[in-house]
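Input/output pair, single chain:
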Amino acid sequence: MQLQVYGKIQKKYSEYLASDETALSYKVAKLQEAQQIRNFSSVYNRLRIYEGKVGKYMIIAPKTPKDMIDEGQMQSNCVASYIDRVANGHTMIFFMRLRKDPERSLVTIEVREGRLVQVKARFNKAPTAEQHEAVDTWFFNSFRKPKQVSLLDYNAED
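Output:
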């Protein structure tokens, strides 16, 4: 029909469709990433009350998705694949560090529905007995004992 009306067949799509689609996909991905960071910030505000110290160790929550990516690279594990689950509140991830060396990753911890689900050292190996004992102590103190939250800990965004 186009041939009869116009004398030629009109192109259905712009010749720039592939590049337009790529640009649009990039913009959508950036918007999703920004939303994920906002969600993560809110989640961190709730998780930080569980951070703690046990002996020479400290347990911290990731502040940003990049923290989880960095942890996965340092530990050679898949914790970065949990970013969406953490941002959506489906699971909680924590990192064990030495108090004197807080940048060095030791153990990655997953807590879900009030249960200690995973405790993994580098390459998904089991942590040392000392590290596991510290995680157990932290978990009991953070999740099993009632939390005393002062008004100073209250964050109006929550």
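Residues 15 and 21 are 11 Å apart (CA to CA). Residues 17-146 form one domain.
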